[in-house]
Amino acid sequence: MRRWNGWGDDATSMNLTTGARAMLAERLGPGLPGQDALREDLLARIPPSRLPEHPLISREPSERFAMALGESFADWIRKRFGALPAVPDGVAYPESGEQVRELLDLAQAKRWMVIPFAGGTSVAGHLDCPVSEQPILSINLTRMNRLLHLDPTSQLATFGAGTPGPLVEAQLRAHGYTLGHFPQSFEYSTVGGWVVTRSSGQQSLRYGRIEALFAGGRMETPVGPLTLPTLPAASAGPDLRELVLGSEGRFGILTEATVRVTPLPEHESFHALFLPDWDRAEAAVRALVQRKLPLSMLRLSNGIETETNLTLAGHERLVGAMEKYLAWRGCSTGKCMLMLGVSADKRTARHALREARRLLAQYGAVYIGPAMGSKWAANRFKGPYLRNTLWELGYAADTIETAVDWPQVKPLMLAMEQAARDVFEGFGQPVHAFTHLSHLYPQGSSIYSQYVWPIAPGGFAPNFERWQALKAAVADAIAAHGGTVSHQHGVGRDHAAHLVDEKGPLGMATLAELCRHFDPHGIMNPGKLLQDGGPWATAALPSIG
Amino acid sequence: MRRWNGWGDDATSMNLTTGARAMLAERLGPGLPGQDALREDLLARIPPSRLPEHPLISREPSERFAMALGESFADWIRKRFGALPAVPDGVAYPESGEQVRELLDLAQAKRWMVIPFAGGTSVAGHLDCPVSEQPILSINLTRMNRLLHLDPTSQLATFGAGTPGPLVEAQLRAHGYTLGHFPQSFEYSTVGGWVVTRSSGQQSLRYGRIEALFAGGRMETPVGPLTLPTLPAASAGPDLRELVLGSEGRFGILTEATVRVTPLPEHESFHALFLPDWDRAEAAVRALVQRKLPLSMLRLSNGIETETNLTLAGHERLVGAMEKYLAWRGCSTGKCMLMLGVSADKRTARHALREARRLLAQYGAVYIGPAMGSKWAANRFKGPYLRNTLWELGYAADTIETAVDWPQVKPLMLAMEQAARDVFEGFGQPVHAFTHLSHLYPQGSSIYSQYVWPIAPGGFAPNFERWQALKAAVADAIAAHGGTVSHQHGVGRDHAAHLVDEKGPLGMATLAELCRHFDPHGIMNPGKLLQDGGPWATAALPSIG
């Protein structure tokens, strides 16, 4: 069963080896295991619903509570410390686009606010309920989870928007296809959620981001349906798919998504290599991705993350022996691990791997083989479970990600880690910060930094304060280096204040105008993407002429 | 010097072989060479300018006339038959974004209409001047034609929006880079024009469409500048680049474009193969593009185009010998020619070509070698010159293109050709219609049909009528099969009436709302993309709630 106050299924947990525990203790001091709040106590404090009875709507407190929060750090500590947030007044579970339409029409007529929900895996506060006079209806799309149509000739599959990763892949696999979209949240996140937050999967190098996979579909907006035909490409004016992508529930609710699928690859394997230091590693992966070889994944850990991962791996004797060999080959302190995936027909996979190894060798890369890669692949969705384990040991963990052009990748990576250290130094606490690049492009790379620190005493408020300070400092570093507000998790509530740095004033006014256009009464997922009360929220830019 | 009433430089012409002339005579009967209008006569009829004197604006009739028309068939016969259209009242040649800003502010304050101009190669009526009470200012961007910045680490190059293809490539080549964007209009069309019409180049299979190449830039809109930062990827809400792409001058004027460039490929070659018939050929190229091999071009001619091209090629003895060999290998009547390009490092190019040949052989493909491919590459931008030659022989020619998912590719291709035959049968005239697929995607393909017919007696009116009937009938066929209004040439004036078939009513209302947002006084390129007076032009959809 899915955990109510932690990541994932409660039958799965990630153990931390003795070595890893020792490393945490050495770097961070002892953890402070908290006293978790009880779900029953939280449920008992949920106020009565302000919605009337309706056959499609449940007003059950436990269901309303389950829709109230996602997986952002703020959401997480609310549950752990029992800091009850505003919760929706009711939950609807539509089974069709028609029912979504009916619910939206009803909500608009009554001026209820609407928050769409599917996998509940947002790490950016997309599910946050505002404190509002208006009743809030959560529309849960998880019953719309079927493969509705498969066109093998065009390699197009149409899914209900609430279909989660495993059901996407299982229904496609039955026909020999894959979508190839594997974000770390794969177990729960849905095709509709991927589209409206512009998600990226671990093998985006082969399959593309969701922008490349989303071919068309249907969005129900307050003012009517927007249908997006599937076309291989078009020059027929602005591409309206690109307004649905990243719309984060502000313009309407995506009900159906048609995605581009691929036959299951004849060959797939993952390989580990080590490079002597960051500068050579970065130069190597940049040259590699700019060569445009048919690889499916590149993931480069910096020195601290490499050391952390090798400690987490356990198998101390085996890892020790490997490190001796690596040191003999020139990769010792500061070495960086590169995980490389190939997914293609057998001969193309062989060609790509051979060429990649040949190029990487010029930068001092040492090839270790597929064993660590297979282990990585087996555990590819397990990372978030570590957060549970850390919490139980008294440590908090969060991740912040961005993307930027190549010249800023290293400076920004260092600045993000340093910003975290500075913030926690201000609180008199240590933090363990480490980083990898997981989505590489000829133009630049995503930067994915992870932070672990001891839970502070005092419950919700001091821990929330530390986290807000961390987010603000790292966001400032990102903005100062020209990084994006988010590479793969969307804007939500948590990054909305910084969006103007990226979109500019006219860009923000344009998004606000689109909100008013699709949602004239402002009922859709308020405060997400665009903050309430920004200068763009009330009026377009004044006309100059 | 550039021809005033035909395609291209007057030092270049394409000769038609005796065999080709015989084929035309046999299929279409004799041509009717017209009496071309004289430029001087047209210039003499241009009414006085309604614009005041201004240091940035020329009111010279010859300059105004040169901005009045593009290369659509309607534009072409206006010049040839001397049917003078409305012309702009003045032409400005800004040399910087600041000057564009100044001109836009002035135009908005005075309520002048603005039509941006650069390469003048639109085949969709983007440059058409409305008959209007308001003066019309053409803003010619061709002086903004420089490489402004090159970032070799991120492989990004920033150009003035008016930089034409040859100056894009020459300035990049000096540094060892290419943009790789080669539309047939390459000699004159510009980077800004490519962006705002969503252009696609002949090697889009490697380099991507302009959507994939356009990383960011700056657009001056009537209400202020929209700046688009360069980012390798982002999940920060709707992608505003996608509003600039395809905006066709309705939202503002793109002044600078930053594009993703690539080192010149180590190896590039083009290869010809023949397949026995359309069904096997289509199945072969579909399988090939779905294999995702690192090829740079695929271009499949149908049987009629293959026969036409072989006749056009001349070298009758050589072609005759080749056809004997092909027939012996199973490719005779109805055979289809496939042109295949590889551009990559040497080993990847070898791998890709070998794998492609192996796969194609399963469908009966016969490989002819690189000689015809080299010839194709040498003449890759010469196609439009043939239109001049045909006109001089008394034949009119036009092309119509679209893209659609695979199941509709063959039915739509046949329907487009048949629609043309039916239209001309109604006029008691023959037409020669033939087609190729030039941009192939795993999901579907572009369809590029060409039509040649004898010029009708009677000058502009009857020839315009025939062309309108052709366009309408083929557009209906496209809409009936779910094809896009345009795959690579944009909407302009000529396809605006059909855009609603693709975007739907709410999509059209959204585009209209964006026009009002960026251009509250409606001065920007009126009637293009969105027709004047459509139901979406005056009001958004009524709110339901």
From TrEMBL, chains A, B:
Pfam families: FAD-oxidase_C, FAD_binding_4. SUPFAM superfamilies: FAD-binding/transporter-associated domain-like, FAD-linked oxidases, C-terminal domain. It comes from the Bacteria. InterPro entries: Alkyl-DHAP_Synthase, FAD-bd_oxidored_4_C, FAD-bd_PCMH, FAD-bd_PCMH-like_sf, FAD-bd_PCMH_sub1, FAD-bd_PCMH_sub2, FAD-linked_Oxase-like_C, Oxid_FAD_bind_N. Its cofactor is FAD. Residues 84-264 form the FAD-binding PCMH-type domain. The record marks R299 as: Important for enzyme activity. GO terms for molecular function: alkylglycerone-phosphate synthase activity; FAD binding. The keyword Flavoprotein applies. The keyword Flavoprotein applies. GO terms for biological process: lipid biosynthetic process. The active site is at Y448 (proton donor/acceptor). FAD binds at P116, F117, A118, G119, G120, T121, S122, T197, R198, S199, S200. Substrate binds at R387. Belongs to the FAD-binding oxidoreductase/transferase type 4 family. This is FAD-binding oxidoreductase. It comes from Simplicispira suum.
